[in-house]
Structure formats: C-alpha cells, structure tokens
Amino acid sequence: MMIPLLNIPTQALFGQLLLGLINGAFYALLSLGLAVIFGMLNIVNFAHGALYMVGAFVAYFLLNIAGLGYWWALILAPIIVGAFGIFIERSMLQWLAGLDHLYGLLLTFGLALVIQGVFQAEFGSSGLPYSIPPALQGGQNLGFMYLPKYRGWVVIFSLFVCIATWYLIEKTKLGAYLRAATENPQLVRAFGVNVPLMITLTYGFGVALAALAGVLAAPINQVRPLMGAEFIIVVFAVVVIGGMGSIMGSVVTGFMLGVIEGLTKVFYPEASNTVVFVIMAIVLLIKPAGLFGRTA
Question: Does the reported pTM lie above 0.85?
C-alpha cells in the first residue's frame, strides 16, 4: 500500500514513525534525568550517557551472573546505578557547589571518558546480546504495520515514568521542597529539611532514570560501552530545545524530536542526522530559553 502523492509505502512510514517514538522514549527519559539534575542542582551532567550505558551493563551482569532477568533488572539496575551516582555526588560533585557550571561539566565529561574507557578495555566495542523477555516477544499485526510488543512496551512505559516524574516534582510537597531548596536553601534548612541529603538523593534519582533507560535499551540496541556516547549529544540538544531544567519540556521535546527524526528518514534521509541540531539552532534564535524554559 502506498501513500498517495508521496509514493511512500505505508509500512515504511509507520515503521519509521515507530522507530522515532522509540528513540523519542529514550531521548525523553535521558533528557528528563538531565533536566532533574540541572533544574534541581544546577549541574551539567555530561556523565549521563556513560551512566545510561552502565545501567545496560548492570542488567547484563544481573542476567549472566546472578541469573536475574529483565523484570528484576528494571528494579535493581536503577537502584544500583543510582547508588553509584550518590557516591559520585558525595565524593566529587558536592565540592563544586557554588562554582561556575563549567567545572561540573568538565568533571562529569572526564568521568564519562573514564567509565567508557574502563568498559571498552574490558568488553571491547562490540555489542553483547540481551534477550527480550518472553512475555514481550513477538508482535501484533495492526493491518497497516507490524508492531513488536517490546517496542510498544518501551514507548508506553517510558511515557508513564516521565509523567510520574513530572507529577512528583511539580505537584507534590516533596517536589516543592526540592524546588525551594535550589532557590533558597537557607530558608528550607530553617524548616528542618536536610538540604545536602536532598541534593544527593536528587542526583541519584536523575542517574537512576538514565540507568532505567539503559535497561530498556539493552534488548534493542545490545549492550555496548559506547552506546551512551551515541545518544548524549542529541539528548543535550533535546534539553536545550525544551528549556534547561524544564521537566515537561524534556518529556514533550524528547518524544517530539524522536518522531521528527524518524519521519525525516522517510522524506529526506540525508538530513536525519542533523535535523535535531537545525531545530535547536532555530529555537535558540527565536527563544533562547527553550520552548518551555523560563526567561530570567
């Protein structure tokens, strides 16, 4: 079946749309973690892609060493990598509080190179297989396209996590404390809130979101030391377009740009690798704070 006037097979169009939604789900989850960390802590976390990769490797280790499958990995990998993130914040990042953002960016960039280098030296550059759980194998023929169950699960589950995170930060008392702690920590301390602990746990939560994305990506992209490096530049572009620190901006922009990127591969494949950055340049020219960002 062809789309009139465009001479494009319907199967190809919807296939790329699904691929765009899947990439958008990863963009949204990763940029959400970045937005949480920057919005709450004012840290530009360049190690986010490496920690996304660590989440995938933790899922791989849980399966092959501990015998724990995908469903356990969805729970344990974010906790384990989040705890590693807490260690990073307590041992390194807390000493950069109050300094220029550039120091945090340089530290996390160096940390990302170290983490990736260690895993690449141990496992090489080739991918390690991680199987789709039996409950999500196969797919459904929708008539106009074939929908693999696992890819549909990734989109729906990612959207659920993104909305739940937005609700937690924007609509609950805990989220109000988090926002207040970044704007006026002295006032929040006066109410008996342990601000340093809150900051540490927030960083751990942002890192846990990256690890969760890594687990979701493992059966699709395989487990590779450089899998995070391939995503992180685009994810930073998503955060900039949505607005630095904007939770909803990261979610909406992540899915939107994933779909645009997927459709670009159908209509103009040569531009698919640059369309996100073209959009970023246009948005910065028109609205420097981003689509959902607040002007100072």
Answer: yes
